[in-house]
């Protein structure tokens, strides 16, 4: 029943670049300010949360600014990565995120623009 998911060898380099950026907004090396987060997002970014609720780019930026205004623990583990090319410069990365007892299946649609990566869409589903 579970689909076979093996990233093609031709996409392993892309997968490694994207793994370094996941989970999105949890990697301090890519920044922790509102401006940093906004620079990671495509203009049309939106998200579907684990609750099924849709969130705008503005809402996500407000939430991230509030979260990073105070020190906080952020333990997590990622696994089971799979990368697919959707169109010439768009790639879908799926993976499992474990945060304590909470496990979610994640997907991020990434766009490569010149020398940078932009997040177009993100979704999390409780497993």
Automatic annotation (TrEMBL):
Domain DUF4440: 36-119
Pfam families: DUF4440
Superkingdom, natural source: Bacteria
Cited SUPFAM superfamilies: NTF2-like
Protein name (record): DUF4440 domain-containing protein
Source organism per UniProt: Herbaspirillum rhizosphaerae
Taxonomic classification: Bacteria, Pseudomonadati, Pseudomonadota, Betaproteobacteria, Burkholderiales
